[in-house]
Backbone:
C-alpha cells in the first residue's frame, strides 16, 4: 500500500487522530485548554491541506481512487471515493469549520476541563460531515451522518447550566433520530429496489438503474422519497425544518454557526452524491419533488422569519429559505452542481460571519438573542454593525455581494431546467425576504442603543468577521475564480 | 397465489405464529400505561423479530438481536427505570389525550399503508428465493474485515462520540473562569 | 472621450466612499465642499459630452465596461443618448445647486460629513439608473437610489417619525420593485437579453400584445412605487421627515422622476400596449387631481409641497400615458427647477423661523426675506402655469397632448385642467400664508434673510424656472428635436396645431389666473378658519394610511401570525423559555418537551413525509 492509496481517507484520518490527541493532552498536560484548541485547529488545517492535495492529485490524472481493504478487487465494493466533488467539499467544510472554531474559541476557553470534550466532538462532527460527502456507499454515508449527528446533538446541549440548552439537545436528538430512521429506511428500500448500496462500481445502484428498466418503480419512488426526507431534515428544508429554530436558539451561540453552516454543506453535498451519482437516471422523478420542497422552504422560511423576535430564530428560518434556494440548483441535475457549490460555499461563509456577530452581541454561551439586544448596535459597535449589514445584504441577495451572484446562478440553473415557476416564486420570496433582513438592519442602525455596556470583539472572532466580510464582498464582485472551481467539482 | 395456497405452506403458519404475537406485543409497548410492562412487552416483540430473522436464514442478525437487545438493552432499561425511581404502577404522564392520539394514529396508519402498498405493488407476486443455506456468521465476519472494514472502523468513532456525549451530559462540573 | 462616461458615476461614488468613512475627520464645511465640487465636476463633464448631441454631430453611444454575468449575457455598459444626457444634466446640475445649498443648511449638524456621503451616493446611484444601457444595470441603480433615499429620509433617525418614514418608504417601494423585477424576468423570457437596444429592436415584431401588456403593467407598477402615484404614493409625504435639501433633491427634483424616465426609456414597449397606456394616463390624471386636493388642506409647508410633487408627477405620468413622452420629459425638467426652488425656499423659511413648519405660524416674511420671497414668487408663478414662465409651457404641452389624443382622453384633459386650477389655488395659499399678512412667528424668533450660500442657489434656480420654457415652446420645439434620437420608432402624441393650441393655452392661462385670484380673495385679508369637514380630512390625508393599516397591513400580519402558529407550532418565540425555563434535570426537561411540541414537530415531519411519498407515487402514475 503506497502513500497515494491513503490519500482518499487522509482528511478523516487526520481529524480522528486530532480528536484522540486532544483527549490525550488532557491526561498528559496540566490544563491544556488552549493547547487542545491549537491541536484541533491544526488538525482542521491539515485536513484542508489534504483536500487540496486530493484536488491536485486528481488534476494530475489520479482518477477514480476508491479505498477499501487490500485483497478485495477495488471497484467491486468501494467505500470511499475521491473525486473533485469530495475534495471541494473537504476544502469548504474544513475551512468553514476552522472559522467556526475560531468563533467558538472564547467558549472553548471558558469551558475549562470540558473543553477537550468539546473539541473532540467538534473534530468528530467535522470528520463525519466530510465522510458524508466522500462516501461511495449508502452505508458509509449513513455512518458519516450518524457520527456528525451524534456529536452535534451533544454540542447543541453543551452549556448545560441553561435549561433550554438541554431542551435544544433533546429536541435535536429526538427529531434527528426520527430523520435518521427515515433515511435508513429509504436506504434499505433502495437496496431492495436495486440490490445494492454502492454508488459506484460493478453492480452499483447506478449501473443497475442504467441497465434495467424498473418495471414496478413504486418501491424505488418510495426509497427516493424517504432518502430525500432524511436529508431535507439535515439541511432544514421545509416541512422538515422545525427543529432548527429551537435548536439554534437553545445551543450556545459560539457553536451555532458551525452547526448551521457545516451541516448544510455536508447535507447538500451528500444529497447531491446520492442523487447525481446513484440516481441520475431517475431525475424526472426526484427533481419535481425537490422543486416542491424548495418552494415550500422558500415560502415557509421567508414568512416565518418575518414574524420572529429573536435573531437566532430569524436566522434559522432564513436558513430554511436558503435551503429552498439551494435546492433550486438540484432540479437542474448535473448542470446545477456548480451553482449548488457556489451557493453553499458562500452561504456557509456568510452564516459563520452572522453567527459570529450573534456570539459577540449575545455572548458565546447564551441561547436566545432577542431583537432588543441588537437595538442601536451601530452606535455601540459601529464596525460590528457594518459587518453585520454586509452579511445581511448578502443573505438578502443584494448585488455586489456573494448572495446576489449565488442567487443568480441558482435561478439560472432552475430556469434552464424548465422550472420557471420556481424561479418566479424564488424572486417573490427574495423580495419579501428583504423585509426580514432590513428589519434587523433597521433595529441595529435606527433604534436607540439597548445599553451602555461595551461590546467586546475577541481577536479570533474579529479575524473571522474580517474573512467573512471580505470574501462576501470580494467574491460578490469577482465571483469567477470560485465559480470556475465550483463547476469543476463534479462527482464521478 | 390465493390465500388458500398461501395457507397450505407450512412455513407461513410458522410465520403467522411468530408475527401475530410480535405485532400484538408491539402495540402493547406503546399503549401500556405501565413502564415495566411496556419493557416486558418489548422483550416479546424483540424475541419475535429475532425469530423472524432466523426464519429468513439471517443467523447472525437473529442472535445479535437476542444477545444485544434482549440481553443487554432491556436490562439497561429496567435498571434505568429502577434508578430513576419511575413509578412502577400506571403512569398518567405517558398517556396523551385522545385528541392527540387520533391524528397520530391516523397519520401512522396512512404512512404504513402507503409504504406497505408500495412494497406489495413492487414485490407482491414475486417469490424471492432464500439462500440455499443460512448465512454463516463466519462469512459475515470475513466480509466485515475485508469489504466493510472502513465502515466498521468508523463505527468505532460513532461510539466514541456517543461515549463522550454521555460523559458530557451526565457529568456536572462548574466551568472554569476565563483565563 | 465618451469612453470615459463611467467617470460621471465614479466621481460621486468616490466622494460617497470617502465621506462615509472619513466624513467625521474631514468635517464641516470641507466635506460639503468636496461633495459639491465632485457633483459640479460631473455636471461639467456631462455638459461637455452633451455638446456633440446638441450640435447634431453626435449620436447615441453604448459604452461597454465589463461583462458581469456572462451566463445571462449581462454586460455592465452605459448608454449616452439625448434622453440620458438630459437626465444626467438635471441630476448633476440641480444636484450641484442643492449640494451647495446644503453646505449652508446642514451647517452645524453633527453628522455633516456622513450626510454629504449619502448625498453623493444618491447622485452616483441616480446616474447609474439613467446611464444604464440594460435592464439589469438600471435595476441596480433603481435599488441603490431606493437605498440612499432610505438612508437620507431617516438621516435624523433619533426622531421616531424619521425612522418610521424611512421604513415606510422602503416597504412601499418594495411593492413597486417587485413589479419591476418580475417585468425584467418576463423581458428576459421573451427576448433572452436585457440590453435595451436588442429588446427595443426586437419588440415590435417579437412581442404579442398580451405579453407587452403584462410587461408594461409590471414596469408601471415599479414606476408607481418610485414616482409616488396612486395607490403607492403614501410614502412620499412622510419622506419629508428628511432634511429639506434631501426633500428637494430626491423627493422633488430627481429620484421620484425615475419612474417617468423609466417609462420614457421603455417607450417602445409601452407603445405596443395600448391598454397599459390607458391605465397609465388614468392613474396619472387621477393622482394629479387627488394629490392637488390634499395639498390644499395641508398646514405644514413641506407637506403642501410633497402633495404638490405627487400631483405634478401625476401630470408627467399622464403625459407618457398619452404617448407624449417629450412633453413628459419637458415637464420633468421644468418641475425639477421650480420644485427644487420651492423646497429650498421653504427650507430657508423654516431655517428663519427656527424650525417651525406650520404655515399658520409664519406670515409676514416678505419684508425680512426679500430674496427668498422674490425667488419663491417666480417658482409660484411657474408651477401655477402663468405665461411665460417655464411651468406654463410644459404643463400646457401635456394638457394639449391629452386633448389631442381624443376620445376618453379629453376627459382626462378636463381633470388635468381642474387640477391646474387647484394647483394655482394652493400655491397662492402657501405664498400668502408664508410671506403675506401679519407676523405669526413663534415667540422669540428673530427671522432674517438667509445667508448667501442659501440664496445664491435660489436665485440660479429662479432664473432657470423662469426661462426653461424656451427649450420647447410651440414656436420652437428644441427639446423635441433634441430627444428625437432617443424616441426613434416611437409614435408620439404631438400637441394640436394652429388655433386649437392657442385656445388651449389661453384657457390654461385663464384657469391659472382664476386659481390665483381665488386664493388671493380667500387669504389676502384674513386667515380663514380651516377646520373640520374637507380641511380636517385633507390634513389627515383622507386617512388613507389608516385604511391601508386596516385593509392591508393588519390582515397581512394576522395571516403571518396564524401561519406562525400553525407551522411553527407555537406562538412566536418565548415558549422555549416557557417550556424549558427553570427546568434543570434531563428527565424533567424531557417530559417538558413532551408536553411541549416535539410530538407536534414529529407529526408535521411525518405528515410531510406522507405527502411527499403520495405525491411521488401519484406523479409516478402508480395510483
Residues:
Amino acid at each position: 500500500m503506497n502513500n497515494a492509496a491513503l490519500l482518499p481517507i487522509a482528511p478523516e484520518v487526520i481529524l480522528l487522530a486530532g480528536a484522540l490527541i486532544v483527549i490525550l493532552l488532557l491526561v498528559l498536560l496540566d490544563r491544556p485548554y488552549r493547547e487542545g484548541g491549537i491541536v484541533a485547529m491544526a488538525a482542521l488545517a491539515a485536513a484542508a491541506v489534504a483536500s487540496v492535495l486530493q484536488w491536485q492529485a486528481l488534476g494530475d490524472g489520479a482518477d477514480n481512487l476508491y479505498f477499501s481493504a487490500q485483497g478485495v478487487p477495488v471497484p467491486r465494493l468501494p467505500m470511499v471515493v475521491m473525486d473533485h466533488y469530495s475534495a471541494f467539499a473537504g476544502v469548504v467544510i474544513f475551512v468553514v469549520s476552522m472559522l467556526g472554531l475560531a468563533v467558538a474559541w472564547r467558549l472553548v476557553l471558558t469551558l475549562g476541563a470540558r473543553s477537550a470534550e468539546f473539541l473532540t466532538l467538534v473534530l468528530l462532527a467535522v470528520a463525519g460531515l466530510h465522510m458524508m460527502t466522500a462516501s461511495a456507499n449508502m452505508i458509509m454515508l449513513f455512518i458519516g451522518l450518524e457520527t456528525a449527528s451524534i456529536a452535534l446533538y451533544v454540542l447543541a446541549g453543551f452549556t448545560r447550566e441553561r435549561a433550554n440548552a438541554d431542551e435544544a439537545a433533546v429536541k435535536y436528538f429526538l427529531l434527528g433520530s426520527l430523520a435518521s430512521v427515515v433515511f435508513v429506511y429509504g436506504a434499505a428500500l433502495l437496496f431492495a429496489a436495486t440490490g445494492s448500496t454502492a454508488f459506484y462500481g460493478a453492480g452499483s445502484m447506478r449501473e443497475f438503474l442504467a441497465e434495467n428498466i424498473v418495471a414496478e418503480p413504486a418501491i424505488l419512488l418510495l426509497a427516493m422519497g424517504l432518502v430525500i426526507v432524511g436529508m431535507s431534515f439535515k439541511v432544514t428544508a421545509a416541512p422538515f425544518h422545525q427543529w432548527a429554530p429551537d435548536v439554534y436558539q437553545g445551543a450556545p451561540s459560539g457553536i451555532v454557526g458551525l452547526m448551521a453552516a457545516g451541516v448544510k454543506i455536508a447535507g447538500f453535498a451528500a444529497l447531491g452524491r446520492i442523487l447525481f451519482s446513484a440516481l441520475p437516471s431517475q431525475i424526472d422523478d426526484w427533481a419535481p419533488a425537490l422543486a416542491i420542497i424548495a418552494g415550500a422552504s422558500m415560502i415557509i422560511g421567508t414568512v416565518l422569519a418575518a414574524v420572529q423576535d429573536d435573531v437566532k430564530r430569524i436566522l434559522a428560518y432564513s436558513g430554511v429559505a436558503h435551503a429552498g434556494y439551494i435546492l433550486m440548483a438540484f432540479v437542474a441535475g448535473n448542470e446545477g452542481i456548480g451553482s449548488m457549490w457556489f451557493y453553499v460555499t458562500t452561504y456557509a461563509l456568510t452564516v459563520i460571519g452572522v453567527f459570529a456577530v450573534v456570539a459577540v452581541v449575545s455572548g458565546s454561551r447564551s441561547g436566545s438573542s432577542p431583537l432588543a439586544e441588537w437595538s442601536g448596535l451601530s452606535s455601540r459597535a459601529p464596525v460590528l454593525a457594518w459587518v453585520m449589514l454586509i452579511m445581511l445584504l448578502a443573505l438578502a441577495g443584494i448585488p455586489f455581494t456573494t448572495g446576489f451572484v449565488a442567487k443568480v446562478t441558482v435561478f439560472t440553473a432552475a430556469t434552464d431546467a424548465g422550472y420557471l415557476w420556481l424561479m418566479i416564486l424564488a424572486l417573490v420570496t427574495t423580495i419579501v425576504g428583504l423585509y426580514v433582513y432590513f428589519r434587523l438592519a433597521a433595529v441595529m442602525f435606527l433604534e436607540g442603543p439597548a445599553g451602555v455596556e461595551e461590546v467586546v470583539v475577541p481577536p479570533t472572532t474579529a479575524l473571522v468577521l474580517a474573512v467573512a466580510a471580505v470574501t462576501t464582498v470580494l467574491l460578490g464582485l469577482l465571483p469567477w475564480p470560485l465559480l470556475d472551481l465550483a463547476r469543476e467539482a463534479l462527482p464521478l | 397465489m390465493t390465500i388458500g395456497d398461501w395457507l397450505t405452506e407450512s412455513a407461513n403458519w410458522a410465520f403467522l405464529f411468530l408475527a401475530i404475537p410480535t405485532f400484538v406485543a408491539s402495540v402493547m409497548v406503546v399503549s401500556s400505561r405501565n413502564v415495566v410492562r411496556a419493557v416486558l412487552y418489548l422483550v416479546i416483540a424483540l424475541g419475535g423479530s429475532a425469530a423472524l430473522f432466523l426464519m429468513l436464514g439471517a443467523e447472525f442478525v437473529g442472535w445479535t438481536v437476542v444477545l444485544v437487545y434482549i440481553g443487554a438493552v432491556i436490562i439497561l432499561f429496567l435498571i434505568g427505570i429502577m434508578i430513576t425511581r419511575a413509578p412502577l404502577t400506571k403512569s398518567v404522564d405517558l398517556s396523551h389525550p385522545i385528541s392527540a392520539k387520533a391524528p397520530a394514529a391516523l397519520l401512522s396508519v396512512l404512512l404504513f399503508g402507503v409504504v406497505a402498498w408500495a412494497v406489495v405493488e413492487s414485490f407482491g407476486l414475486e417469490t424471492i428465493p432464500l439462500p440455499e443455506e443460512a448465512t454463516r456468521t463466519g462469512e459475515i465476519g470475513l466480509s466485515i474485515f475485508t469489504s466493510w472494514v472502513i465502515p466498521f472502523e468508523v463505527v468505532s468513532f460513532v461510539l466514541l462520540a456517543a461515549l463522550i456525549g454521555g460523559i458530557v451530559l451526565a457529568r456536572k462540573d462548574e466551568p472554569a473562569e476565563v483565563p | 472621450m465618451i469612453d470615459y462616461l463611467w467617470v460621471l458615476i465614479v466621481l460621486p461614488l468616490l466622494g460617497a466612499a470617502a465621506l462615509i468613512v472619513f466624513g467625521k475627520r474631514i468635517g464641516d464645511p470641507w466635506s460639503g465642499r468636496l461633495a459639491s465640487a465632485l457633483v459640479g465636476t460631473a455636471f461639467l463633464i456631462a455638459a461637455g459630452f452633451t455638446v456633440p448631441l446638441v450640435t447634431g454631430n453626435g449620436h447615441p453611444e453604448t459604452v461597454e465596461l465589463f461583462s458581469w454575468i456572462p451566463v445571462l449575457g449581462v454586460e455592465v455598459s452605459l448608454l449616452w443618448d439625448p434622453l440620458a444626457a438630459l437626465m444626467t444634466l438635471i441630476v448633476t446640475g440641480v444636484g450641484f445647486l442643492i449640494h451647495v445649498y446644503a453646505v449652508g443648511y446642514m451647517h452645524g449638524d453633527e453628522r455633516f460629513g456622513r450626510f454629504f456621503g449619502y448625498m453623493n451616493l444618491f447622485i452616483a446611484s441616480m446616474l447609474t439608473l439613467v446611464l444604464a444601457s440594460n435592464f439589469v444595470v438600471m435595476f441596480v441603480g433603481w435599488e441603490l437610489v431606493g437605498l440612499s433615499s432610505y438612508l437620507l429620509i431617516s438621516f435624523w433617525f433619533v426622531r421616531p417619525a424619521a425612522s418610521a418614514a424611512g421604513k415606510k418608504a422602503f416597504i412601499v417601494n418594495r411593492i413597486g420593485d417587485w413589479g419591476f423585477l418580475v417585468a425584467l424576468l418576463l423581458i428576459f423570457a421573451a427576448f433572452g437579453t436585457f440590453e435595451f437596444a436588442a429588446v427595443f429592436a426586437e419588440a415590435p415584431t417579437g412581442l404579442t400584445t398580451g405579453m407587452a401588456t403584462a410587461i408594461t403593467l409590471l414596469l408601471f407598477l415599479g414606476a408607481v412605487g418610485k414616482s409616488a402615484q396612486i395607490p403607492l404614493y403614501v410614502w412620499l409625504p412622510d419622506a419629508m421627515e428628511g432634511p429639506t435639501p434631501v426633500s428637494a433633491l430626491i423627493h422633488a427634483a430627481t429620484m421620484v422622476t425615475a419612474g417617468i424616465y423609466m417609462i420614457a426609456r421603455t417607450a417602445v414597449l409601452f407603445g405596443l400596449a395600448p391598454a397599459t397606456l390607458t391605465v397609465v394616463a388614468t392613474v396619472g390624471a387621477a393622482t394629479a387631481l387627488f394629490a392637488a386636493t390634499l395639498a390644499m388642506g395641508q398646514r405644514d409647508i413641506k407637506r403642501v409641497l410633497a402633495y404638490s410633487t405627487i400631483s405634478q408627477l401625476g401630470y408627467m405620468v399622464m403625459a407618457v400615458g398619452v404617448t407624449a413622452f417629450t412633453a413628459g420629459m419637458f415637464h420633468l425638467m421644468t418641475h425639477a427647477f421650480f420644485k427644487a426652488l420651492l423646497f429650498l425656499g421653504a427650507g430657508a423659511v423654516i431655517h428663519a423661523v427656527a424650525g417651525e413648519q406650520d404655515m399658520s405660524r409664519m406670515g409676514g416674511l416678505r419684508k425680512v426675506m426679500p430674496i427668498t420671497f422674490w425667488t419663491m414668487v417666480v417658482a409660484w408663478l411657474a408651477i401655477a402655469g402663468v405665461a411665460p414662465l417655464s411651468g406654463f409651457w410644459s404643463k400646457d404641452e401635456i394638457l394639449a397632448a391629452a386633448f389631442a389624443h381624443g376620445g376618453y382622453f379629453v376627459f382626462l384633459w378636463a381633470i388635468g385642467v381642474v387640477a391646474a386650477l387647484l394647483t394655482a389655488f394652493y400655491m397662492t395659499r402657501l405664498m400668502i400664508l408664508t410671506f403675506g399678512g401679519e407676523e405669526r412667528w413663534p415667540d422669540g424668533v428673530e427671522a432674517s434673510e438667509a445667508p448667501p450660500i442659501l440664496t445664491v442657489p435660489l436665485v440660479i434656480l429662479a432664473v432657470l424656472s423662469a426661462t426653461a420654457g424656451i427649450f420647447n415652446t410651440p414656436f420652437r420645439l428644441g427639446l423635441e428635436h433634441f430627444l428625437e434620437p432617443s424616441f426613434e420608432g416611437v409614435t408620439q402624441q404631438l400637441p394640436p396645431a394652429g388655433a386649437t393650441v392657442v385656445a388651449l393655452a389661453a384657457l390654461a392661462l385663464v384657469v391659472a389666473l382664476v386659481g390665483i385670484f381665488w386664493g388671493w380673495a380667500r387669504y389676502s385679508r384674513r386667515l380663514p378658519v380651516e377646520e373640520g369637514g374637507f380641511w380636517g380630512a385633507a390634513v389627515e390625508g383622507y386617512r388613507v394610511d389608516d385604511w391601508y393599516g386596516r385593509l392591508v397591513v393588519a390582515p397581512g400580519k394576522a395571516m403571518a401570525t396564524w401561519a406562525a402558529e400553525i407551522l411553527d407550532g407555537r406562538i412566536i418565540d418565548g415558549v422555549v423559555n416557557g417550556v424549558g425555563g427553570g427546568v434543570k434535570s434531563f428527565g424533567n426537561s424531557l417530559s417538558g418537551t413532551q408536553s411541549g411540541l416535539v410530538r407536534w414537530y414529529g407529526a408535521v415531519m411525518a405528515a410531510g413525509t406522507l405527502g411527499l411519498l403520495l405525491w411521488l407515487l401519484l406523479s409516478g402514475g402508480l395510483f
